[in-house]
Amino acid sequence: MTSTAIENALVINGVDKTFGATDRPAVLQDVSLQLARGEFLAVVGPSGCGKTTLLRIIQGLETATSGTVELPSTTGAAPRLSYVFQRSSLLPWFSVRKNVAFGISLKAGRDVHGSKVARDRAVDELLELTGLSPYADYLPNQISGGMQQRVNVARALAVRPDVLLLDEPFSALDALTRERLQVDICAILENLGTTAVLVTHDIREAVFMADRVAIMSAHPGTVRQIVEIDEPRPRTVAFQHSPELAEVERSIWRRLHPTV
Ligand SMILES: Nc1ncnc2c1ncn2[C@@H]1O[C@H](COP(=O)(O)OP(=O)(O)OP(=O)(O)O)[C@@H](O)[C@H]1O
Ligand SMILES: [Mg+2]
Question: 220 is in which domain, residue-wise?
Answer without folding.
Answer: 1-79+163-260
